[in-house]
Amino acid sequence: MRLGSAASALALLLAACGASGDSAHREETTTEAHGAEAGHGETAAANGHGPALGPAEAHAGTNVPHPAAHQQATHWGYGNQRAWAGVSGLCGRGQEQSPINLSSAAPMAEVPDLAPRYLPVEGGFVNNGHTLQFNPAQSAATLGIGHDNYTFAQFHFHAPAEHMLDRRAYPAELHFVHRNEAGQLAVVGVFIEEGAENSALAALLEHAPREHGDEFAEHLSVNLTALLPPDRAYFAYAGSLTTPPCSEGVRWNVLRTPITASAQQIAALREALGSSSRHTQPVNGRTVLLGS
Length: 292
Ligand SMILES: [Zn+2]
What we know:
By secondary structure, the protein is an alpha+beta fold. The longest helix has 11 residues, at 263-273. The chain has one domain: Roll (Carbonic Anhydrase II), CATH 3.10.200.10. Strand 5 and strand 6 (148-158) form a beta hairpin. The protein is built from six helices and 14 strands. Bound molecules: zinc ion.
C-alpha cells in the first residue's frame, strides 16, 4: 500500500528489489523481530502521505509524483518476509496483522451493510514492482459500510490470494482500497477462482503493464462493479496493510464468494505479478465476523 502515483518513480526504485520466488511456507509467527524501530508508518504520515500506507494497498490516486516516495522506497520482497521486520517493526511484532486464514464455519453475525457505489471510473494502471495497481484519475466511487463512508483510492492484485479460506488459497485476490475523511483505510478483498472468463478483467489485462515501472498512463475506464461477485456476504475483521510498513487499523472486508477468471487470465495475472502474497498471520484472538 502506498499513496499517489508516485508509483512510477517508486517502481523504478522497487524494480531493483528483486522479489524472489515465494516458498510453500504460508504461516509465520510474530514472536520475533524486535530489531527494527517501530514507526515507519508514522514516518510516512509525517511525510504528508497520510496514515501509514504501504506500497501495495494505499495509492491515493493523485497524479502528482511525490518526492517522499523516494524516501519510502525501502527494498523488500516476497521471498524473505521475515526481513520485513527490518523495514517496519510492525511487520514482525504487530498483533493485528493481515492476511489471515478465514473460516467458512464462522457463525453468521450482524455486520454493517457493505454498499459499494462504484460508478465506472477512469484512471491509470501501473506495475509498481510489487503489484498491478489501478489508480483513479478522480475519486467519484465510494464505499458505504453501515453509516461509514469511504472514498475509493485504488485497487490492485495479489497472486496467489493472501487471505486463505479454510486453509485454501485461491489463485488470486483483488484489493479495493478506500479511505475516509479521517484517513482510515477500508479494504474490500475479492477472491478470484478459475472458471468462466471475466470480461471486466479481460479489458484490464489487455492494458496490463508487464514490466516493473511500466504504466498505462492513458485513461482506462473500469467498471469496478463488474469485478465484484453478486453475493456480498463478507468476513469483517481489523487488520493491517499486507505490505511494509504493515500499518494496523485497516478495516478488512473480505467477500466470501469469489469471482471467476479463466485459466489463461489467471496465468496472465501470475505472469504479470510474480509472487505477490504475504504469508497468513496469527489471528491473536481477534473477532472475525461473517455476515451479509
Ligand atoms: Zn493488497
